[in-house]
TrEMBL record:
It comes from the Eukaryota. Residues 42-137 form the Serine aminopeptidase S33 domain. This is Serine aminopeptidase S33 domain-containing protein. Gene3D superfamilies: alpha/beta hydrolase (3.40.50.1820). It comes from Sorghum bicolor.
């Protein structure tokens, strides 16, 4: 039977790798659902999922297992409007997701030492934006994050998407059977297009250690985006480009987990 949600501040010390459901309220009063993996440590790594995914994405689960095996607590959670968290799903929402992450980090800091934040895909872009705004975590690990946010839109929304959204005010994205997966409003689209990852990268503090990991065979977000982060972020290391790995690291999950662990436990950049 699942345990009821509790505050991590009041949670009892649990055996290694024990999972506990935790609720964190964001600044909009929405409840964000997360899973805290206890490994008997005062350190915690926060894991951020990608677009239209959730805390139960296999990458999040595998990373949490790898971290707890190394003696670090891990916290994976659903951004607002995703998974079990409250709120409305939005196509853009980069800044709000950074705010969600801030609520989570602030909550965890009440009891734990937040060692790093790790984000995959859209979550990778969110952790970059987070570091540029808040600057309250010592380490960021970006997994296949997108630098050029204007790219990838046409693949999801179709050609002439700006004309369509200006005319209708929204675009419904459908699956192959014609069912609506989600609605893209003009406001959410413009929030994405107006989020400047170049400026965000330049404004990250030199005190923040930053790592990027990417797959060389990523067809969703090309590896060139990783090189742009490496070029602009002050205290940055392109930890590794995993050869032949796709966007989801489907056949390279162990290499991904090892690269994340190596980044977090490394002594120097």
């Amino acid at each position: 039977m699942a345990q009821p949600p509790v505050s991590s501040k009041d949670a009892p010390d649990l055996p290694a790798a024990r999972e506990q459901r935790v609720v964190v309220a964001n600044k909009h009063g929405e409840n964000l659902m997360g899973i805290l993996h206890h490994a008997g440590s005062n350190k915690v790594v926060v894991l951020c999922h990608g677009f239209a995914a959730c805390k139960d994405d296999s990458i999040m689960i595998d990373l949490a297992a790898a971290l707890t095996k190394k003696g670090m607590n891990a916290f994976r959670f659903d951004f607002s409007g995703n998974g079990e968290s409250e709120g409305e799903f939005q196509y853009g929402n980069y800044r709000k997701e950074a705010d969600d992450l801030h609520s989570v980090v602030s909550h965890l800091y009440q009891k734990y030492d937040v060692t790093a934040i790790v984000g995959h895909s859209k979550g990778g872009s969110v952790v970059v934006l987070y570091a540029s705004i808040y600057g309250d975590v010592p380490m960021v690990v970006n997994l296949s994050g997108r630098f050029y946010l204007e790219k990838g839109v046409e693949e999801r929304l179709g050609k002439e998407y700006m004309d369509r959204i200006n005319r209708e005010g929204y675009i419904d994205v459908l699956n192959k059977s014609g069912k609506i997966l989600y609605r893209v409003t003009k406001e959410s689209l413009m929030e994405r297009l107006n989020t400047d990852m170049h400026a965000a990268s330049l404004s990250i503090s030199k005190e923040c250690r930053f790592f990027t990991i990417h797959g060389s065979a990523d067809k969703i977000i090309p590896v060139e985006d990783a090189h742009e982060f490496a070029r602009l972020i002050p205290n940055h290391k392109l930890t590794c480009v995993i050869k032949r790995a796709n966007h989801g690291y489907t056949s390279h999950r162990r290499q991904l987990c090892d690269a994340v662990i190596d980044s977090i436990t490394s002594k120097v950049v």
